Amino acid sequence: MPVRKGAPALLSAGTLCAALLLTGCAGPAPSAPVPSSSPAAGDGRPAPGPPGVAADDLASAPVPTPRIPGIGPATHALVPDGSTQVLVATGATADSNTATVTLYRRDRAGRWTEAAGPWAAHNALQGWTDDHTAGDLRSPIGVFRIGDAGGLLPDPGSRLPYDQDEEFEISGTGLSGEPLEGSFDHVIAIDYNRVPGRTPLDKERPLGEEKGGGVWIHVDHGGPTQACIALDREALRELLRALDPAAGPVVVMGPKTVLAR
């Protein structure tokens, strides 16, 4: 029997992995005024940073911004006001099957900072689409809730509800002939054409079977997917431990030219 914990929040609507994988997939607030850092008149020394923080640390620290980097106003408007964790999965072009995935968090002032990543990833063989259908070998473009997880292996410390189940076992080969074994050791369900709050294994498709479903973030098997996002095993485990249901996490996914709108 699956082991579940917690109860997630809801978002999204509207791809493909659980069943298909068995055949081969495997509002911004202004930032506070910055005090002048100019040295006093006649003093040629640079102004000091905050106490206990080295200058090199300041130079390399993530810079908070009022908007998620690479995300334009139209896409940003689709991020729920209550979401303070956003996972961005972006490809270089509409046809690319490799992507970069980065987790951002928003502070109380409305500024976004990189929280984890960036990580290299795979997406669907044929790239991206804003009108996904079953079997088109493209990942859906959009903003989707991510609130349910599971896998063949035990929970690695996820705060999301996590279902450990033998049904996550998979074998066979992927679209590039690579072995799929272990791809579902850990997964996070993307709320495209699924009922939120259920195990990723749930097969109910509110938009109909023709619109696909079972779109997950899962372990990278070394090649493109049917529609899912695939991350290195350790990166996925890190992500599972970082996502917080109370932060209303969502994934923003698609080619960079679309997400920049």
UniProtKB/TrEMBL annotation:
Q: Where is the composition biased (Low complexity)?
A: 28-59
Coiled-coil residue windows? none
Keyword Signal appears in the UniProt entry: yes
Under PANTHER family, the record lists: BLR0621 PROTEIN
Name the segments for region: Disordered.
28-75
Its signal peptide is: 1-31
- Taxonomically, the superkingdom here is Bacteria
Q: Which UniProt keywords apply?
A: Lipoprotein, Signal
Please identify the protein, giving its name as recorded. Answer: Lipoprotein
List the source organism. Streptomyces vietnamensis
